[in-house]
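Question: what's this shape?

___
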Amino acid sequence: MSFVGPRPALYNQDDLVALRTQKEIHKIIPGITGWAQVNGRDELPIPVKVEFDEYYLKNRSFLFDLKILWLTFYKVIKTEGVNH
C-alpha cells in the first residue's frame, strides 16, 4: 500500500472493482488517500469515484501526490466530509 493512490475496494464493492478493472485502475498500488477522497469521500457515487481514479491514473506525478497529501491534511484539519 502507498500513501497516495486509489483507496482499496471493500469486499462487497463488486461494481467498483469491475469499473476499476475496465479502466485499468487496478494496476495502480492502492493508497491511504487519493484524488477521489479529497474530492468527496463517501458521498461520491461509484462511477464518479472511478472517474477521479482514472484522472489520477492519467495524471499521476510526484507533484500531484503532494497536492493530494496537502488537500488530505487540509480536509482533516477542517473536518470536511465528516458526517458524525
Q: What stands out?
A: The radius of gyration is 12 Å.
